[in-house]
Design a protein that fits this description.
mainly alpha, about 65% helix, binds zinc ion
Length: about 100
């Protein structure tokens, strides 16, 4: 039997909530080692999932963003060379560099 921590009512083994007061039952308390290993496994799975997430989605977005900065910079270089004016290039390079720094690329 499982005794409720809140009201003391006895509930069946495996019950998740107390039948008397609906308090969440600590059903794993009888086997702490098992509960611990299960928690660890869940955490590990979540960590792996997070790694996968950052490794694909944001990693790809970051690559595209870096590429966009590079293209902008390259376009700036071409325009500057064509115009024979190099000062806009410094402004552009500064802006792109700042943007990249802010975005932590
Ligand atoms: Zn209870």
């Amino acid at each position: 039997m499982l005794r409720c921590n809140k009201c003391g009512a006895e509930n069946e083994d495996g019950a998740r909530f107390c039948l008397s007061c609906a308090h969440k039952l600590q059903s794993r308390i009888t086997d702490p080692q098992d509960a611990d290993s299960e928690t660890r496994q869940t955490k590990k799975d979540k960590r792996l999932l997070d790694l996968f997430d950052t490794g694909t989605r944001s990693g790809h977005g970051r690559y595209v963003e870096a590429l966009a900065y590079a293209v902008t910079l390259a376009a700036g270089v071409i325009v500057s060379v064509l115009l024979g004016e190099y000062w806009p290039l410094y402004v552009l390079a500064g802006m792109v560099g700042l943007a990249a720094w802010v975005r932590r690329i």
